[in-house]
Design a protein that fits this description.
The longest helix has 29 residues, at about 20-50. The chain is globular. Helix content is about 65%, strand content about 0%. It has one domain (about 1-355). It is mainly alpha-helical. The chain has helices spanning about 1-5, 20-50, 75-90, 95-120, 130-150, 175-190, 200-220, 220-225, 235-255, 265-280, 285-290, 295-310, 320-330, 335-355, and strands spanning about 155-160, 165-170. A two-stranded antiparallel sheet has the order 1-2. The protein has 14 helices and 2 strands. The structure holds Muraymycin D2.
Length: about 350
């Protein structure tokens, strides 16, 4: 919005010329997002407490979690606010990619909100049934995938890191593949959100990594130099990702151990979908699995645990997802969290290194 309101003034005052630069607007969105979290956070948490939107902690989890009973949850609504407002304020609202990313994120957040509302307010521990949740996720991701397919300006290819000339043209199969990526990423972040700040940390490193990848993909000269696919209009996603990373950073202020608030499904489903849809738009789906490696490991640990238990009756881990395994091995919660963050930072660096290694 500011682009339309203030950029025209550059004719009179050249300083307003900065509003046409994506980098400037990305910083503006990020600063606005953190400020929103810091300013609204305390009152928002008090509101959640007043309305008794406290987490119901399952008794079959690690005993250390029982003390978390009643921690305010659905804090993800604050994250969404701190993503949507800065993006609308600083983004180029004529950019289709921006709208597809924003709307996918918001609608996944709505699915999470309904699930949280039923669990927390209606005290229905099941929330939305897994089937209903999955159907709604597929519908939202399907709408995004269809929009990306019909509005595409480049072939619907799957790009492989390190191999600059290797690309698999998915054709119409781009749509189910894109749905798989977005729904998979959303549920992977959801599974990971089981310790204080555990999901937020890797989301910050991954969204910051994709901020760089989006800017490069959207820049004709840089994408040519790096020999990565040029995706016209992808650069604007940097503004959105600046807001995502900053919103998570601001939320982490309150979600860090010992957490004052949990993000709830409204946050975890939305953040995962945001990372998934951006990876599809910028043709970096495989790099999402690298930068978001913690989310992949968490999901694979659950799949391994369930398969092993079904086939042999034995568990691979003391408890899945794998963060609980380390807790039950005696690692203090902060130790598990920070070590997972360290791995995420290393994976982000590996992801960025692929820009040069090809
Ligand atoms: C998402 N939700 C947390 C909080 C957060 C199939 C199975 C693997 C599913 C999985 C599951 O239920 N996943 C749901 C994880 C929950 O966090 C809430 O959920 C939101 C995210 N969706 O925002 O509102 C608990 O996590 C803890 N927490 C924190 N700090 C945070 O910042 O401490 C969350 C955020 C909160 C709080 O205790 O209550 C969760 O863990 O449920 N199931 C599991 O993850 C369970 N694993 C399991 O059953 N493993 C089995 C089989 C199925 C693989 C096995 O190992 O044999 C574990 N989780 C729980 N109890 N709660 C273990 C049992």
């Amino acid at each position: 919005m500011l682009l339309y309101l203030l950029y025209p003034l550059h004719a009179e005052y050249s300083a307003f010329n900065v509003f046409k630069y994506i980098t400037f607007r990305t910083f503006g969105a990020a600063i606005t997002s953190v400020l929103l979290c810091m300013l609204i956070g305390p009152a928002f948490i008090r509101m959640l407490q007043r309305r008794q939107m406290g987490q119901v902690v399952r008794t079959d989890g690690p005993q250390s979690h029982l003390a978390k009973q009643g921690t305010p949850t659905m804090g993800g609504a604050l994250i969404l606010l701190a993503i949507v407002v800065p993006t609308l304020l600083w983004g180029d609202l004529s950019n289709k990619n921006l709208w597809i990313a924003l709307l996918t994120t918001v609608f996944f957040g709505v699915i999470g909100y309904v699930d949280d509302y039923r669990k927390v307010i209606k005290k229905n521990s099941k929330g939305l049934s897994a089937r209903h949740k999955m159907v709604l996720q597929i519908l939202v991701a399907g709408a995004a995938a269809y929009a990306l397919y019909i509005f595409r300006e480049t072939p619907p290819v799957l790009k492989f890191p390190f191999f600059k000339d290797l690309a698999l043209n998915l054709g119409v199969f781009f749509i189910p593949f894109a749905i798989f990526v977005v729904v998979g990423a959303s549920n992977a972040v959801n599974l990971t959100d089981g310790l204080d700040g555990l999901a937020v940390g890797p989301t910050i490193t991954t969204s910051a990594t994709f901020l760089v990848l989006s800017y490069c993909a959207g820049h004709a000269v840089i994408s040519e130099y790096l020999q990565i696919p040029h995706v016209p209009g992808a650069g604007e996603l940097s503004v959105f990702l600046g807001a995502v990373a900053a919103a998570c950073l601001g939320f982490l202020w309150f979600n860090t151990y010992p957490a004052q608030v949990f993000m709830g499904d409204v946050g975890s489903l939305a953040l995962g979908a945001a990372l998934g849809v951006v990876s599809v738009i910028t043709k970096n789906e495989i790099l999402l699995a690298v930068a978001g490696g913690i989310f992949v490991i968490e999901t694979l640990s659950v799949m391994a645990q369930v398969m092993s238990f079904k086939m042999t009756g034995k568990r691979v881990f003391k408890m899945a997802p794998i963060h609980h395994h380390f807790e039950l091995k005696g690692w203090a919660e902060p130790k598990v969290i920070v070590r997972f963050w360290i791995i995420s930072i290393l994976l982000a660096l590996v992801t960025l290194s692929t820009l040069k290694l090809r």
